[in-house]
Design brief:
- The structure is a homodimer of 366-residue chains.
- In chain A, helix 1 packs across helix 9, helix 3 runs parallel beside helix 6 and helix 3 crosses helix 9.
- The C terminus of chain A is likely disordered.
- Chain A starts with 6 loop residues before the first strand and ends in a 16-residue tail after the last helix.
- In chain A, the strands form two sheets. The first copy, chain A, has a seven-stranded mixed β-sheet with strand order 3-4-2-1-5-6-7, with helices on both faces.
- With 366 residues, chain A is of the alpha/beta class.
- Chains A, B: Its EC number is 1.2.1.11.
């Protein structure tokens, strides 16, 4: 391929889309045309990308013509409908939604951890994991490579922006309603003050935490908890990995945090875990409690890596580590990982070996 | 004992003291004199208890004369100094601090779980567990009695009032500084806005979570994480119970939440766990995700029990349960449990069998 590949950003006007346009503008420019696509009601808006005001076009078959790589940053039902159309038109689709993550014919890729998976994509679609999985995988994948992962117990502290712009607006409104008051000390007083301003949540988030994210599934699990288990198994190639998770939303705008108890096949030490984490791509080790060095969402937001601290060997299990990590759910957790996948595809398309690559005209043959 | 026992509330002017005076005023009145004691700078203040304005006296040897039960709701260093003095003067001390929790000669009591431990108190002192342990024990103790506890992995979502009144004031100030802004989306923007208003915390709490509470101990553990392990082992009589914990402070005023992964010796079912939790004292089962019924701090604050929801059997371990629970850290977590212990002691003093009780004149003989 002599010309640079053409990129479509589908969902350019959303919260993740906004971060994606920043990333495309800031990273090394590997793209030819960059087409911004969104729902018809956003068509005609102009957004800045690579220093140029660019008009948003409505999602349609025509909008997907001549595209080499299509980044889908839209709800799962939109991806389910339109990603196969883009793939049929010859684009490699990088989808950030849940639509294809469980599809055995769609690789689920974190470039630092399983880049090899990218090359086998029979449907012409590559999926990016859920933001919560992505917060964890760079660190846990690196530790797995050394120690052999056996079991995970995960508790989340999830930011509201993972639930969309309405969720952020709801928390902002709630913060204004409770700030300057003495609320938060009597049963239901925050709920009464917040009234109908719940946004997409079942309970207030200001001065509260809510132990739910996702849809209700069998056994009382949430779809997101089950997703962490399925995605971690798929990415790490561990189909019978034991995973338990409890997902909790907290009043943070952006950046997910996770407390992780990870049991391995071999004995661990904090020193070796520190060495691994300090030298792994997409991970920053920040771990000195004496100096109050541990990651918090307010310090991590807007940065690319997963920040890891509170690394301890379990007191009663020499094969287990306890740790706490934070990652910006709109960057590595969504836009950045998808951008990295797209850039890897672009590099493959530009490579002299690309005649042998699986990108075009081979749907179903791999 | 014909007269009702005399009660001293030491630390009456603190946050837990305020809740204690409510409880003493609302519960069945088992007390004769109620003496309010605090630091010399609070002496002379008047506080309402049992409908009467009562003058606060300064902590001194004299203030502890003639007291049958002394409730200590003060920092550990104050308890360490004064509780033995009160005991030497004949009072049974109920201490809510960490000073004596690890002392083998001091029982650590949750009346619903290990009431028998109360009767053996060679030092004349009974300790109440830390608020985080107390949030968990009524539910986990009940499940242990049925299934036999083998291992706990706990993540906390701790309210700021557990760190005292300065902590609450700091979060209130921080909330006012960030409400109505667009903060929380750039690295350090919340930290800059909060400035010096951190209170006792190492990082902002508004629009943030902070993975630390307690002092730094060996291996990177916090004193509170180690305390959960030691206290749970002592209360349940399981000296080699495996416990891992990661403690995280969240922007909630009052009510601690915990995500708990509990492994048992025998196979569990959600149905049986529900039956146990629904019929256990000091526990409310609130668990129907379809109806958005799960406990949150804003709904639980101001109530006495531990509220439990999100009860699930681990998908990859038939002997493990995952659950989420909330309890008011100033009520069951501090004042209420201490009050319950004190009332049990009062009942013992009033009982016809009390000549055989170990309360008075027997220090060191048990």
């Amino acid at each position: 391929m002599i010309r640079k590949p053409a990129l479509a950003v589908v969902g350019a006007t959303g919260a993740v889309g906004a971060v994606m346009l920043q990333i495309v503008s800031q990273h090394e420019d590997v793209w030819g045309d960059v087409r911004l696509v969104a729902s018809p009601r956003s068509a005609g808006r102009k957004l800045a990308v690579r220093g140029e005001e660019t008009e948003v076009v409505a999602l349609s078959e025509e909008a997907l013509e001549g595209i080499d790589v299509a980044l889908f940053l839209v709800p799962a039902e939109v991806s389910a409908q339109w990603a196969p159309i883009a793939a049929a038109k010859g684009a490699v689709v990088v989808d950030s939604s849940a639509a294809f993550r469980a599809d055995a014919e769609v690789p689920l890729v974190v470039p630092e951890i399983n880049p090899h998976a990218l090359r086998v994509r029979p449907r012409g679609i590559v999926a990016s994991p859920h933001d919560t999985t992505l917060a964890m995988i760079p660190a846990i994948g690196a530790l797995h490579a050394e120690f052999g992962l056996d079991e995970l117990v995960v508790s989340s502290y999830q930011a509201v922006s993972g639930a969309g712009r309405d969720a952020v607006a709801a928390l902002r409104t709630q913060m204004s309603l409770v700030a300057g008051t003495e609320l938060g000390t009597g049963p239901g007083d925050v709920r009464r003050a917040v009234g109908d301003e719940l946004g997409p949540f079942a309970a207030p988030l200001a001065l509260n935490v809510v132990p739910w994210s996702g849809t209700v599934e069998d056994g009382g699990w949430s779809s997101e908890e089950l997703g962490l288990r399925a995605e971690t198994r798929k990415i790490l190639g561990l189909p019978s990995l034991r995973v338990s998770a409890t997902f909790v939303r907290v009043p943070v705008i952006t950046t997910h945090s996770l407390a992780v108890h990870a049991r391995f096949e071999s004995e661990v030490t904090v020193e070796r875990a520190h060495d691994i984490l300090a030298t792994s791509p997409a991970v920053v080790l920040y771990d000195d409690p004496e100096a109050a060095d541990f990651p918090t969402p307010a310090d991590v937001v807007g940065t690319d890596p997963t920040w890891v601290g509170r690394v301890r060997r379990a007191m009663d299990d020499p094969c287990a580590l306890d740790l706490f990590l934070c990652a910006d759910n709109l960057r590595k957790g969504a836009a950045l990982n998808s951008a990295q996948i797209a850039e890897a595809v672009a590099a493959e398309l530009a490579s002299p070996a690309s005649p042998g690559n699986p990108v075009r005209g081979r749907s179903g043959s791999l």
